[in-house]
Amino acid sequence: MGMVGMKKTVYDIHAKNYDSWYDRNSAVYASEIEAIQKLMPSCSGKNSIEIGVGTGRFASKLGINYGIDPSVSMLEISASRGVRCIKGVSEWLPVKSSSMGLALIVTSFCLMDANMTLEEVHRILSTEGYFIIAFVEKNGILGEKYRKKASKSRFYRNVVFRTTENIISMLKEHGFGDITVMQTLFKPLNQIQRPEEAEEGFGRGSFVVIKAKCIKNG
């Protein structure tokens, strides 16, 4: 999430506050987990990694082996949840080529260099390995809200929100295919009191999950 730097980032300084958001919004978190789980392939015996792992809320719940993030403070929390942590950024992954069966990015793609990240994800995945990317849809209720307050938010100041169509197009350009899409969070967050049932497709939900297969020539 972001570029390399020795200086502490907002994610280092506010790691615990960032993590506690999921406790305060437990039904939203459960809805997001459920939507991702619907697209999770069987990873038995395969290496898997969450890129931009943050505090490990998703990796630990979804059984992801490794997590990578530039924030040491967040990685410490992630490690406490049993994730094997690597310090680094999405644009230059310190991971061997074709070594992962599954790569996951949740909500942090908007903070990354999209093209460099997708090139790296494609490189580290094995042939027909899976990439799952979950994000806040630019034109959804939540995306519109975050865009309005982005300039004043410590976490969303430098984000680039994207539409589902844009991300699908980018995935195809970078060697991914066999695409499946799920969506959830159909109401404003303060109205979600119980976990929502995820639906196929996109266009209604604020939180979209795409699963794509890595296609390699030769």
Automatic annotation (TrEMBL):
Residues 50-133 form the Methyltransferase type domain. Keywords: Methyltransferase, Transferase, Ubiquinone. The keyword ATP-binding does not apply. One of its GO terms (molecular function) is S-adenosylmethionine-dependent methyltransferase activity. Signal peptide: none annotated. It comes from the Archaea. One of its GO terms (biological process) is methylation. Transmembrane segments: none annotated. The keyword Ligase does not apply. Gene3D superfamilies: Vaccinia Virus protein VP39 (3.40.50.150). This is Ubiquinone/menaquinone biosynthesis C-methylase UbiE. It comes from Methanolobus vulcani.
